[in-house]
Write a structure and sequence with these properties.
This protein is α/β, with parallel strands linked by helices. About 30% of the residues lie in helices and about 25% in strands. It has six helices and nine strands, in the order αββββαββαβαβαβα. It is globular, with a radius of gyration of 17 Å. Pfam families: PNP_UDP_1. Keywords: Glycosyltransferase, Transferase.
Amino acid sequence: MIKRIQQASEFLQDRGFENPEIGIILGTGLGKLVDHIEVINEVSYNHIPNFPTATVEFHKGKLIYGNLAGKKVVVMQGRFHLYEGYSLFDVTFPVRVMKELGIKRLLVSNASGAINLSFKKGEIMLIDDHINLQGGSPLAFKGVDQLGVRFVDMMEPYDRQMNEKLTQIAKAQNITLHQGVYVSVMGPQLETRAEYRYLRTIGADAVGMSTVPEIIVANHLKIPVSAVSVLTDECDPDNLQPVDIDDIIAMASKAEPNMITLFTELIHSL
């Protein structure tokens, strides 16, 4: 396990991925942040030892290293999901590699559905807390204590300081930024009306199929992390409309400039 992480890290270091300060994971339809990066090098996932390969057509599958807002960053342009058939260890393996490379902070984005009916598609939600309904933990494997304490405290999984800065940036930039609870489900199917009612009842404001495993591992590795959800559809069980993946991608693209502003300004302030 440790050897696999080191092999991937050494491969990237040999290709100039040196001492990145910040890791970034870009979610569905949210890859244009890389257009704002002064790229030093990039590597396809399928060239990196022990890395999974992105199988979703709208995930690029590249690890990018460069400069953004005066900081060295390493960016996942495309992530991995349980619904692709990967294990929780596979899904979170890149976070462990980024830690080995040297990142000190992690920023995560995703596309999700708005369960809170006061939130509208095209808006952004800052994740304040989460609910894990993916049926497992990325820490549930033999030898996890070699990488960090087994019983990770999750009282405050999202970094308060970075979240406060994101809130201030949104206010200064006149960006609508909700705060709420993200629930992560297995997928890839979307939810039924009854499931949306259930998720709302247990306290979720938005639902998606990613992010929580990476957040758990970031906390295991003691990496301060913040995450935002771009709300791509509205999950009103009493007025539910069919959702097409092309519509989700289009809505993510519409909201993406605000996400880019939030991340870029935050990185500049760190």
